[in-house]
Amino acid sequence: MRIIELNETSKKNILENLLKRSPNQYEAYANIVDQIIKDVRNNGDKALFSYTKEFDKADINEANIKVTEEEIKKAYQQVDNKLLEILRKAKKSIEEYHTKQKQNSWFDASKEGIILGQKVTPIEKVGVYVPGGKAAYLSTVLMDVIPAKVAGVDRIVMVTPPDTKGEVYAGTLVAASEAGVTEIYKVGGAQAIAALAFGTKSIPKVDKIVGPGNIYVALAKKAVYGHVSIDSIAGPSEILILADETANPRYVAADLLSQAEHDELASSILVTTSRKLAEEVSTEINKFLESLSRRDIIKKSLDNYGYLLLAKNMDEAIEVTNEIASEHLEIMTKDPFMDMTRIKNAGAIFIGEYSSEPLGDYMAGPNHTLPTNGTAKFFSPLSVDDFIKKSSIISYTKEALEKVHKDIEAFALSEGLSAHANSIAVRFDENYSN
Asked: Entry's HAMAP family (predicted)?
């Protein structure tokens, strides 16, 4: 990996290069996605089955698109008991963490006859997209489904691409069953997003779609937003490690590589105040690459979006860390908790040398569906909040309204809204009685 000294020019170039990975930069795919969405919206299952045959080489139809109880039972027989035990441990951690996020309705009554409050209601139907392709994403199933269950969502509809035999990976089915998915459909890509957004004969329309996917899935979610809600438009995975001379170079190298193996567009960045550490990390990366199974993907990722950034001091290191706003941020410094207090932008923060990013992917409990491509500046991790909606509650007695009615009428008239003013005034018109 290249070692680059930070200055205004290098900072600008790096940020521009990282932004190339954003789904918003792939408008060339948008026309294809729009055509798929239009086709599924107009032709329903016919289009859905046709695209599944074209892209996934699977013969899916109305009779076999939905995963059956028998298929789930068979999946349990295929999954190792040790893996099942691990899935259940992870489920427990994720449930415990997200239960703490749960919100309740509240009401506040005053002596003046005013009741104000907030009613919290779960979303009724949620669609969860689970990728297939280069890897199996059991952890994604747990992370996307469990918060919805904790929130109280009644119907959780999962879609995931089948293999060429029309089957879904057994581990994915078991994870879905353990997490509490209501129903599972064998379909992926932009066509699956369109089906969830508009409904077909086989697949129900949902109110919100969550879950990561490839560029077609990301652009499809962007296109259907407004017809349904979405969690975010996820980009490629990324990690930034903030470290000083006290960091273990072997640990830093291993953690950078853990994200680079996701795909060629993944980004792995070290920001450090120590040139010695940067050089040692580079050496350790080369050693690890000799034995890692996905080294070809890792090399492309590091060549295009991997950086060892050398800062003059910790102030500059933290400044660029906040500017990049990484999905995953690890802090390996002399005083990581103090440095953490200065971090403004990050999806998930891992503190200390034994808090490696994969801990968050699988077992710790916080959600691993996180904002990418700098969107941690204004987005948060997936949470129970994503599966609820809030309604304001307002109740005034006549006596309470009487104290403010003239103010409201004046306010409305100042905006030129006489009907608004009249709606209040009519309640105090002496010429009118109930």
From this structure: HisD
